[in-house]
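Input (structure):
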């Protein structure tokens, strides 16, 4: 197997294991704080804050300056040692200052993101936030060191380190359950309980970053603090990040509005915790399929775009959308009919699972469109165009805000999470339509009808597959059966339903003589562990 092939396999395997251990982490977390409780939502809000802030910082600093410059600096006479010392010093200072200021501002940040929480719940979320917001520094260190390792072709640690983070969290949350049991009521929480939960969450990120330093010697670089930042490229931030930074900022602002609206579901009904876990389920097939299948196509597409071979780019677009579509359509159908057992994995009762399943179903509306958007958006990137993606993403963000405010005005609190998810999905559908239209105007000859026809055939085969999956769910007892009786059995039930749906799907694709089936099966076989190709 080639070096690239080995690296791809290593990254893909690490991502899958990371996702699976992340699932276990979420299961244990729900067992500790509950899915629809005041404490569960308070923790979910606080632990999301460092991610939101880091997303903005990473795009403005890491993506704009540090990551590209790490790669370029390899050609310097000293192998990039002096330059990377400056970059790392700059990045660490920015991250440290940001983490410090964010931690000081914890009460205001919680109030900003969760204005409808009762005072006691806001106070608990603030206590969690004091422990969680320092994660910003360690997220950044992980990204900087990881990118340096990747630039020196040391791929494994960056991909596998999050698994250790998950294991640390699983251990800490399990210890919490052993000592305190499930504590969902806000009034139950003591400073010791808050410290254990918050320290566990942050310790996982610290270890995730720390592990990468163990592999630093492989880069051959000797980094020292260097505060002489002249020549690092600060003046180029606007040119390098520009539209991408604004796109992330718009997305974060839209997410802020969603969080504010969703904070009205402070407890009892699906709120922040349920929404995050539904999104985790939604992203599982998307991330695995895009990583394993979409990324190689994008690499080929980028090469053709840079060579000016537009006809090949058009062919790449259609081929990649058809291939992704074949897998994503059945993933959507299978996850839809298994929504209740799958949601039971992250909930404490059948009633909670049914409510959470509604949120998942609303997210699933956008699964196929987002797979198409992956190809369309990255085609613009292949032509070094980030302004156009900003334009259609801005429309999507505006629609997310409008639908969130509409949900707040018209929906009861128990349906807020589902309403926000549906609004986000509809906004994504509009986004991909606009993006495709703009790409058609730029390149022309995309033959949209041909890959839309292919997607239609996949959907036609997915209908009986979904029916078979639903019948399996009913025969296994439905909402009163064993597939929803516990978290573990929920996972097993969802796997059985998904397997039945997949088998029927393949059968109907063969019956319809879908031309994409044979190459898709060959591709899937090559991606299996132990296969070479």
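Output (sequence):
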């Amino acid at each position: 197997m080639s070096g690239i092939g080995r690296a791809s396999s290593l990254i893909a395997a690490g991502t899958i294991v990371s996702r699976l251990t992340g699932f276990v982490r979420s299961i244990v977390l729900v067992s500790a704080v509950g899915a629809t409780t005041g404490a569960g939502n308070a923790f979910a809000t606080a632990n999301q804050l460092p991610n939101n802030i880091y997303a903005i910082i990473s795009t403005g600093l890491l993506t704009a300056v540090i990551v590209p410059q790490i790669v370029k600096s390899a050609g310097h006479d000293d192998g990039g040692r002096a330059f990377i010392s400056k970059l790392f010093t700059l990045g660490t200072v920015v991250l440290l200052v940001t983490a410090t200021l964010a931690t000081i501002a914890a009460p205001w940040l919680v109030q900003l993101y969760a204005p409808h929480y009762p005072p006691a719940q806001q106070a608990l979320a603030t206590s969690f936030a004091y422990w969680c917001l320092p994660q910003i520094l360690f997220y950044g260190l992980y990204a900087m060191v990881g990118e340096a390792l990747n630039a020196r072709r040391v791929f494994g640690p960056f991909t596998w380190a999050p698994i250790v983070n998950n294991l640390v969290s699983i251990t800490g949350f399990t210890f919490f359950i052993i000592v305190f049991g499930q504590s969902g009521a806000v009034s139950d929480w003591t400073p010791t309980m808050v410290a254990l939960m918050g320290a566990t969450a942050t310790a996982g990120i610290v270890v995730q970053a720390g592990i990468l330093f163990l592999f630093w010697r492989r880069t051959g670089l000797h980094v020292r603090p260097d505060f002489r930042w002249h020549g690092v490229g600060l003046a180029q931030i606007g040119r390098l990040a520009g539209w991408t930074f604004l796109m992330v900022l718009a997305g974060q602002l839209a997410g802020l509005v969603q969080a504010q609206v969703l904070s009205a579901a402070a407890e009892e009904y699906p709120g922040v915790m349920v929404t995050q876990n539904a999104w985790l389920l939604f992203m599982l097939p998307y991330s695995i399929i895009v990583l394993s299948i979409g990324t190689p196509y994008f690499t080929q597409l980028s090469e053709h775009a840079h060579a000016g071979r537009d006809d090949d780019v058009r062919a790449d677009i259609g081929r990649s959308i058809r291939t992704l579509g074949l897998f994503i359509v059945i993933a959507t159908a299978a996850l839809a009919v298994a929504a209740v057992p799958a949601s039971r994995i992250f909930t404490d009762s059948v009633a909670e699972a049914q409510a959470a399943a509604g949120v998942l179903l609303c997210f699933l509306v956008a699964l196929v469109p987002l797979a198409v958007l992956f190809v369309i958006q990255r085609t613009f990137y292949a032509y070094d165009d980030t302004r156009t993606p900003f334009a259609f993403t801005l429309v999507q963000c505006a629609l997310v805000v409008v639908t969130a405010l509409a949900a707040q005005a018209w929906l009861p609190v128990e349906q807020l999470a589902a309403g926000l998810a549906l609004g986000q999905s509809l906004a994504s559908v509009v986004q991909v339509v606009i993006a495709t239209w703009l790409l058609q105007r730029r390149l022309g000859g995309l033959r949209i009808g041909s890959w839309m026809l292919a997607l239609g055939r996949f959907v036609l085969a997915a209908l009986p597959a979904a029916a078979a999956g639903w019948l399996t769910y009913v025969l296994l007892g439905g909402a009163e059966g064993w597939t929803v009786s516990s978290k573990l059995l929920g996972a097993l039930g969802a796997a059985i339903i998904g397997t039945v749906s997949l088998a029927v799907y393949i059968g109907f694709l063969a019956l319809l003589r879908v031309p994409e089936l044979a190459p898709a099966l060959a591709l899937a076989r090559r991606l299996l562990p132990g296969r070479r190709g």
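Notes: The chain has two domains: 3-240, 250-465. The two ends are 7 Å apart (CA to CA).
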